[in-house]
Design goal:
Layout (H helix, E strand, L loop, with lengths): L1 E3 L2 E15 L11 E18 L2 E11 L14 E2 L2 E2 L8 H4 L6 E12 L4 E22 L9 E23 L4 E18 L12 E17 L4 E15 L8 E14 L4 E8 L22 E8 L2
Antiparallel strand pairs: 1-2, 2-3, 3-4, 4-7, 5-6, 7-8, 8-9, 9-10, 10-11, 11-12, 12-13, 13-14, 14-15
């Protein structure tokens, strides 16, 4: 809804009710079912106090699906310029896909452009995720002469990732531009078994955090005939805490180069790239959300059609 030329509001609400198996992942499998429901409000704001100044804000809540439906969306993927469509926020390589996960997101940003051809974007986002996962277990509380009894124990998962992104682009001429982008991410996971005293489950509980930094530098060239090229470098560094044994960090550079051509009034784009030119492998903790980088020198070919 656009109140007037300077202010645009987005609002909505969704209701989800899920009924699903309590545990079909870890043995012994349970035939029991559980359910979860949530009313999820969503609000977004874009305010343009000046023609070249845009302030953005967003708040959303969501309820994750069970299995396949986690990848299906019937609502907008963005609110106020921030993504609110997540299959999962807790990385699945850390906790797996947990049915009925609750998501909460906060976002604030500013976009500023100047007559000098300078463009600045600053974004801050908080992603929160809460879930309860059931693990199969066997108990023999009645004594040695009693057969083992299948049961389950719940695991509480709390995850938060705070992210700050700063991007600066500069037009040098009609054909040349340069830019820099810095992203700082701090992720924290608290996972503990609720029915087991923390002292007795110290080897299984998780209280871990990771800090990820990424710096991207690029140079772009665009020719009026449709030819374009780009060279960029990506620096990545990560620190990890709370792991036993300790988990080493990372500090490395990767360099990429692209050349391409657009034709038929930019309806078709073909592009050829050489990624990770220096053949730099890496090892990153998946606790932070990040885009996968090539692990070896890679030749990439891309073709896009715009209708």
């Amino acid at each position: 809804m656009k109140l007037w030329d300077q202010v645009e509001l987005t609002g909505g609400v969704s209701y989800d009710y899920l009924q699903y198996p309590k545990n079909i992942d870890t043995s012994p499998i349970s035939h029991r079912e559980t359910d979860v429901e949530q009313v999820s409000p969503k609000a977004g704001l874009i305010w343009s106090p000046l023609p070249n100044t845009h302030l953005r804000g967003a708040y959303t809540r969501s309820l994750g699906g069970v299995f396949y439906d986690s990848s299906v969306r019937l609502e907008p993927t963005q609110v106020g310029g921030f993504n609110q469509a997540f299959r999962s926020i807790i990385p699945e390589s850390v906790a797996g896909l947990v049915p009925g996960t609750r998501f909460t997101t906060y976002g604030a940003g500013i976009d500023q452009s100047f007559k000098t051809g300078t463009y600045i974007t600053i974004d801050g986002q908080i992603l929160e995720s809460e879930a309860t996962k059931s693990w199969g277990a066997v108990t023999n509380a009645a004594g040695l002469l009693t057969p083992d009894t299948p049961t389950h124990t719940p695991q509480k998962l709390d995850y938060t990732e705070d992210t700050l992104t700063v991007s600066l682009s500069q037009l040098l001429s009609d054909q040349w531009s340069v830019g820099v982008r810095y992203r700082l991410s701090y992720a924290e996971l608290d996972a503990h078994f609720e029915n087991i005293p923390r002292a007795g489950a110290s080897n299984f509980n998780q209280d871990q955090d990771a800090t990820l930094q990424q710096l991207t530098l690029w140079v772009n060239y665009y020719h009026p005939c449709g030819f374009f090229s780009q060279v960029n470098g990506v620096w990545t560094a990560q620190e990890n805490n709370g792991y036993s044994p300790s988990l080493s960090g990372a500090d490395f550079w990767q360099f990429n180069a692209w050349v391409g051509y657009r034709f038929l009034r930019r309806a078709i784009e073909v592009k050829l790239g050489l990624l990770n030119i220096t053949d730099q492998d890496y090892s990153l903790n998946p606790l932070n959300l990040y885009y996968d980088l090539p692990r070896e020198r890679t030749l990439a070919v891309s073709a896009k059609f715009y209708f």
